[in-house]
Amino acid sequence: MLTQLLQEVARTNRLQSVEELARILDTTPELVRMMITQLVQQGYLEEAAQCITGCAECPLSVTCPAEGGGTRLWSLTEKGKGALPHD
Questions:
Q1: Which residue, 3, 14, 81, 22, is CA-closest to 46?
Q2: Residues 25-38 pLDDT 10s
Q3: Helical packing angle, 18-25 and 29-41, nearest 10°
Q4: What is the pTM (predicted TM-score) of this model?
Q5: Most exposed: 35, 53, 58, 71, by fewest CB within 10 Å?
């Protein structure tokens, strides 16, 4: 399931909440948070940004599923990109 999470982060061109990732992966938000923590510790994901402003001031508010800010955004590291299956 860790590979599926990496693939989902790489696949999307928009931000996704932990809850949305859990729905896509058919699991719980708690498990997604644990997987993200593990992938960060292993060097496959890194924090791209953390929302600290209100959504009204954010230029990404149109595409972001977060309500009220405080959401962390993740991106693949080079190691994470290398771990994805190649077509």
A1: 81
A2: 999 999 999 999 99
A3: 100
A4: 0.73
A5: 53
